[in-house]
Design brief:
Layout (H helix, E strand, L loop, with lengths): L23 E7 L11 H9 L2 E7 L12 E2 L9 E2 L1 H11 L4 E12 L2 H8 L3 E5 L8 H8 L3 E6 L8 H13 L32 E2 L2 E2 L9 H19 L12
Parallel strand pairs: 1-2, 1-6, 5-6, 5-7
Antiparallel strand pairs: 3-4, 8-9
The structure holds 6-chloroguanine.
The site of 6-chloroguanine has 13 residues, from strand 5, strand 7 and helix 5.
């Protein structure tokens, strides 16, 4: 474990996730470990240094035994592309799974990853992300893993990426920032898009007038009740305009 630099913990500068319970352990299996270098940057990088997040990235090819370190083969039944072979995945998961593991297969064929799923994942002790490439992983890997762990197939949305890596990174960031101690000021997690089912209100800072555009007067009024009401109204307006499907049917209370 790398000791945290003094400034990474505002309150006491401790080295090992001070004041919190066990860190969240995250294992990632991929044929492109170098994708995950970005996890050393910014908030998540600090959380790794402080010990709040224990993230380990594994190269799937380390679990092969042939000279070419083969991870894919042609699809049974024919068709275009390649499928990831089950054997390396089986060996990787044998080495990584623990009693409390939840295993996530990022896939455009999965259920939608949402803020509430991110919140759920942030409370687990051990997340395992299995990043597929090509046309996907042999289905038996997912089925067999279900017999020994909780398994989720999760999608970021209705579009296709080249593999699970970027999706896993998004999920790790969304869940990781909700782990206690990762975001310095937990209040900043409350008033953000999707936390209360609405999109966030627009934000402004100084100067009060910029390129002829004014900050809404209410925000400079000092009237906290009026500011709160204005922000709520903006949340409704923005949600209605951008994501009307998120609003409850007219007449229902939110
Ligand atoms: Cl999770 N994986 C891939 N390959 N593409 C996606 C996705 C996941 N979510 C949206 N598109």
């Amino acid at each position: 474990m790398i000791a945290a630099p003094a400034e990474s913990w505002g309150r006491d500068g401790g080295a090992t996730h001070p004041g919190y319970a066990e860190p969240v352990r995250i294992d990632v299996v991929t044929i492109f470990p170098e994708f995950f270098a970005v996890l050393d940057v910014s908030l998540l990088g600090k959380a790794r240094q402080s010990g709040a997040l224990d993230i380990r990235v594994h190269d799937l090819r380390e679990f092969t035994h042939d000279r070419h370190r083969t991870v894919d083969d042609t699809p049974s039944g024919g068709g275009a592309g390649m499928v990831m072979k089950p054997e390396p995945w089986g060996e990787a998961l044998d080495a990584i799974l623990t009693d409390g593991s939840i295993v996530i297969f990022p896939t455009p064929a999965g259920e939608l990853f949402t803020q509430s799923r991110a919140r759920d994942l942030s409370t687990r002790e051990h997340l395992v992300f299995c990043c597929g490439r090509y046309e996907g992983i042999d289905q038996r890997v997912i089925d067999h893993t279900r017999s020994r762990a909780e398994v989720l197939e999760l999608s970021l949305g209705d579009y296709v990426l080249n593999g699970g890596e970027v999706a896993a990174m998004a999920m790790i960031e969304a869940a990781g920032r909700l782990v206690p101690g990762v975001v310095g000021n937990p209040e900043s997690l409350v008033e953000e898009s999707h936390e209360d089912g609405l999109l966030e209100y627009p934000s402004y800072t100084k100067p009060a007038v910029w390129r002829g555009l004014e900050t809404p007067a209410v925000l400079l009024s000092g009237n906290h009740a009026a500011i709160a009401a204005w922000r709520r109204e903006q949340q409704y307006e923005r949600t209605k305009r951008m994501r009307p499907e998120l609003l409850p049917p007219a007449g229902d209370a939110l």
